[in-house]
Amino acid sequence: MFGLRPIQETREHTPSFYAATANSQTAFPTLTDDTSADVVVVGGGFSGVNTALELAERGVDVALVEANRIGWGASGRNGGQVIGGIGHTPERFRRSIGDEGIKAIYAMGIEARDVIRERVERYAIQCDLKWGYCDVALKPRHMKAFAEWQAFEKAIGNPHPYTLLDRDELKAYVNSERYLGGLHNTANGHLHPLNLCMGEAQALATLGANVFEQSRVVAIERGETVVVRTEQGSIRAKTLVLAGNAYMGGLVPQLGKQVMPSASSVVATEPLPADLAAEILPADVAVCDPRTALDYFRLSADRRLLFGGLSNYTGMEPSNLEGVMRDKMCRVFPQLQSVNIDFAWSGWIGIGINRMPQLGQVRDNVYYIQAFSGHGVAPTHMMAKVTAEKIMGRSKRHDAMAKIPHWSFPGGALLGRPLLAIGMAYYKALDLL
Ligand SMILES: Cc1cc2nc3c(=O)[nH]c(=O)nc-3n(C[C@H](O)[C@H](O)[C@H](O)COP(=O)(O)OP(=O)(O)OC[C@H]3O[C@@H](n4cnc5c(N)ncnc54)[C@H](O)[C@@H]3O)c2cc1C
């Protein structure tokens, strides 16, 4: 067992491997006067930046306001794993979205990664993007599930092959005694998420959008025209997009009740000698296991092992974060016991009850995107694209997502956290079987 402490936050980036290796620092101005735009977007993570970018690419006059720095939230501190799929088992919502909706969600799950690929190419964003991924099995039933998954990807028309690997074959990708086998694909991959997010924001500014940092929205006036008020200024717009996710708090209470901030953590080792890096991850793939509280890891471009895990529904991190993560890492790669850990950090994931991204409209001219439940690097890009399509007047695929029912956590943050913790403890117990 370990004690917990609140995650230390300032208005600058949380110290992390990503903040230390950012290509450059963004320095967009603080909003200090009253201005206007056609569309104003709140939140400078992947969801907000990409909605704004999609709109700016279509010639819309758009402004973006971020409370802290671009990529300050989950988008600039995650594991950097680019994973396909949108949420979990959309078949649960057949009654609401029909077969067409389910089909559209699976197609978006494939397309999501291509949105990133295109962004990186079009704007020449230096973010160490690499393709290659292994899901790894800890139990025989995981291998059975992988075989079903492999068949499923083929059935939905994923053009990328998924290859089952037995224990020995897996070692060419993930050289650990911990796993029984795996499922490899080159559809998924990994990247430096903060550099991606900052690169996307730079592209947005280049297209003429106004981007504001250190400008927290503290009030919203709704009507035919919306006004977002920050501490020092305001933006009047025809349309508002809310993309503050787990960090938006009670700004819009009905959205806040649907998303529970949960902490996840990552450590980065010192750069590993080339032979040690090649020994543990010979094909430089990103890796994750299928548990509820999963381990996820990969090498950075400078050969550090970035190892992530934990999910804490109090929103806090272990007081001995480095020690807890080192234990997890060394269960996979015992040879890393004496390697230094240079960075350890945590951030908030936005969890929704049904584990499907939440998007839709609070009213005609107020859109929202949130709750990626720990799987958002690629899906945020896709949900941003369909939100922009909808704002431009058409998007059946946005409408399919928006028809999915979402629920508030019963009892709000006070009771919702313990209830979620109990629910997750149940799923974690199932992981042990
Ligand atoms: C430690 C960790 C590891 C993860 N690993 C992975 C992974 O490997 N792969 C994966 O697919 N997903 C991963 N995720 C999830 C993924 O990072 C998120 O789903 C995704 O980044 C969410 O993006 P977002 O833009 O919706 O939210 P965020 O990136 O959290 O952005 C929200 C932004 O809104 C701003 N904001 C909030 N309120 C206001 C306001 N009132 N005014 C102005 N601005 C405001 C915040 O400051 C913040 O910058 C991980 C998350 C964490 C925390």
Supply the CATH architecture of the largest domain: 3-Layer(bba) Sandwich
Mean pLDDT: 94
The name of the CATH topology of the largest domain is: FAD/NAD(P)-binding domain
- Describe the sheet with the most strands: 9 strands, mixed
Structural class: alpha+beta
Number of helices: 12
- Low confidence ranges: none
Shape: globular
Share of residues in strands? 25-35%
Distance between the termini: 21 Å
Radius of gyration: 21 Å
Helix content: 25-40%
Into how many domains do the coordinates divide?
A: 2
The ligands found in this model are: flavin-adenine dinucleotide
CATH class of the largest domain: Alpha Beta
Number of strands: 19
**CATH homologous superfamily of the largest domain - what is it?**
FAD/NAD(P)-binding domain
Explain the overall architecture:
This protein folds into 2 domains: 10-78 and 194-259 and 354-429, FAD/NAD(P)-binding domain (3-Layer(bba) Sandwich); 129-189 and 261-351, D-Amino Acid Oxidase, subunit A, domain 2 (D-Amino Acid Oxidase, Chain A, domain 2). A hairpin with a 4-residue loop joins strand 9 (217-221) and strand 10 (226-230). By secondary structure, the chain is an alpha+beta fold. Helix 2 (46-57) runs parallel beside helix 6 (193-206). The two termini are 21 Å apart. The chain has helices spanning 17-20, 46-57, 94-122, 140-155, 167-170, 193-206, 253-256, 274-280, 321-332, 377-391, 396-402, 412-432; strands at residues 4-5, 34-42, 62-65, 81-82, 130-137, 162-166, 181-190, 210-212, 217-221, 226-230, 234-242, 260-269, 286-288, 296-299, 305-312, 317-318, 341-351, 358-363, 366-370. The strands form 3 sheets. Strands 4, 5, 6, 7, 12, 13, 14, 15 and 17 form a 9-stranded mixed β-sheet that branches. Strands 2, 3, 8, 9, 10, 11, 18 and 19 form an 8-stranded mixed β-sheet that branches. The protein has a two-stranded antiparallel ribbon with strand order 1-16. The mean pLDDT is 94. It is built from 12 helices and 19 strands. Flavin-adenine dinucleotide binds at residues 42-48, 65-68, 72-75, 77-81, 83, 216-217, 243-248, 251, 264-266, 296, 308, 347-349, 372, 374-377, 380. Flavin-adenine dinucleotide (FAD) binds at residues 42-48, 65-68, 72-75, 77-81, 83, 216-217, 243-248, 251, 264-266, 296, 308, 347-349, 372, 374-377, 380.
